[in-house]
Amino acid sequence: MVQKQRVLPKLPCKVEAELDKISSLPGHIIDNILSHLPIKDAVKTSVLSRKWRYRWATVPSLVFDTHCFSVSSQDPALIKNKLVSIIDHVLLLHNGPLQKFKLSHRDLLGIADIDRWILFISRSFIKEFILEIWKGQRYRPPSSLFNCQNLIHLELFNCLLKPPESFKGFRNLKSLDLQHITITQDVFENLISSCPLLERLTLMNFDGFMDLNIDAPNLQFFDVGGVFRDVSFKNTFSLALISIGLYVSINDVDDQRKAGENSSKLLRFFANLPHIRRLEIQSYFLKYLASGSIPSSLPEKSLDLNYLSIRINFSDLDETLAVLCLLRSSPNLQELEILARPEEQPSTGTFTNFWADNLWCSLFTNLQVVKVVGISGLKTELDFINFILSNSPVLERMTVKPASLDGSWGLVKELLRFRRASIHAEIIYLDP
Predict the structure, then answer these.
(1) N or C: which end of the chain has fewer CB within 10 A?
(2) 285-318 burial, b if ≥16 CB within 10 A, otherwise e?
């Protein structure tokens, strides 16, 4: 009996064809694919073909985070040894220019091995360096970090900065992000002023200095949140976006006022900000601006300011006057966000009926969007909303979100009763 010859399946041929397609990809396409993969997956591509083997070792970006490896053990020592072994192995095999290095693993302490890795990358033309130490004490980077003169972006978390005396700044740095940082006043000021190309600066939860003296001619973006005593700008005529929050108790600011500070914080804050477009005043920073004398308006109007977000205690007369000063000085404002900040102890001061003053007619000729959040139905809050609606002829939308449901129906009735200068204005009520 003659048996029929077995026909081989065609699936392996298709697989082989697919592998041939992968192998024939241009080098820059392969590099682009590898650059979007976690390092552990990039290493695995070595088995695809001869062309892919060790191709991962030339990727210009190395990211070591919680996705770079998985381990079932909860032993910190085992996790640390595993991570150190992986990074050492990758750096040993890496061949080619290294432009980005990121180390951010929640189980990694500020260990001496990091010093070795920073020394290694400092010998490359590294452009982006991100180091986030999530546990333990502040980690002090070695002096070799300050030799990375090709850096464009630097991001440090939970570090103590003390550059060597020979450090003259990062001449190419454009973006600096410092969070949970310890640094002295002199070192901070020298660091900022010695980065002539700096465009973006982020400061969050810092200690070691109290005065934010910013001297940066190319700075465009400034985001800060923490405990500080004073803030001043110098040579910041390009600064356009500011988000600033003062994390301090209201009593601390009151102590400053009692010390006899009568100069206008508002005037000094805006003196070197002629082109600001977006301003976010968070936490207690409005309290800071309201300390000292409060002008009725700024000498030079903020003509470029189109977005303003303010956290305010509506029961504080000084804060209210400070807001009025800002509104008078922002004729081209298009979007306004008001966040109510209730206080346990009501502030002293007598409110006059300036909301209903005829001088305010059609003040906001460009205001289109308003958002009011966290109100509780106080008369001062409702008067403010009425004031905005009555003086915004092109208003398109006002969103109101109270702090709680208490008295919500009464609040809705009040909102519907207010006159609107814009026939297109829509009032949107959101439940808390």
Answers:
(1) N
(2) bbbbbbbbebeeebeeebeebbbbbbbbbbbbbb
Q: How many CB atoms lie within 10 A of CB 374?
A: 18
Reported in sequence order, the residue ranges of 250-312 that DSSP labels E, i.e. its strands, are 278-283, 307-312
Burial class of residue 87 (count of CB atoms within 10 Å of its CB; 0-12, 13-18, 19+): buried
- Is the pTM higher than 0.70? The answer reads yes
For residue 186, the surrounding DSSP H or E stretch is helix 185-193
pLDDT in tens, 402-418: 998 887 788 888 888 99
Q: What is the pLDDT of residues 186-216, one digit of tens each?
A: 999 999 999 999 999 999 999 999 999 999 9
Joined together, the tokens standing for residue 227 give 């405990």
Q: Rounded to an integer, what distance in angstroms lies between the CA atom of residue 164 and that of residue 143?
A: 6
Q: Token pair for residue 163?
A: 């550059």
Terminal alpha carbon distance of the chain: 84
Instruction: Compute the CA torsion angle 373, 378, 382, 385 (nearest 10 deg).
Output: -30
- Kindly report the CA angle at 80 between 160 and 138, in degrees rounded to 5? 10
3 state DSSP class of 256 = helix
